Amino acid sequence: MRAATANAWTGVQMLSVGFVTVLTAAAAQLSFPLPFTPVPFTIQPMIVLIGAAALGSRLGALAQIFYLMLGVAGLPVFAFSPELPQGMARLLGPTGVYLMAYPIAAMGVGLSVIFLGGVLWIARAAGIETALATGLYPFIIVDVIKVVAAGLVLPTAWKFLRH
Questions:
Q1: Contact, 139 vs 39, CB < 8 A?
Q2: Which of 73, 71, 75, 55 minimizes the C-alpha distance to 63?
Q3: Dihedral, 145, 23, 156, 32 alpha carbons, nearest 10
């Protein structure tokens, strides 16, 4: 009986990881480009944080690794960009480190690692002032709102996962 329960729980975990992976990809499709930066507004960081809080850091990170693998394989899971193609090239562009920071953010360091990685990546080519102006400042207020929204959604996610 214990093995059956363990297998059922593993199945639920696998489905949950898949669900968060799909939610991350769907969140990328709701992107809002800004004229002064290659980094669009998306709700992906909120999904990363909610997924990690609901699943735990290990499974939350796994969902983000799967998301990145789908993108590297060329599936159209990354946010629309007129300049950057889907696939591995996206991870080498200006938004690449933001995306690659998702699994690490899911491990508990949250939004700060996404911003740190992204700003440093832009700064290597454009300088720190430009990186802050295009990769951090425009997103702070909206991301604080996203974190608050995530906090409001979490009790429902936990309740759903308990059942």
A1: yes
A2: 55
A3: 20
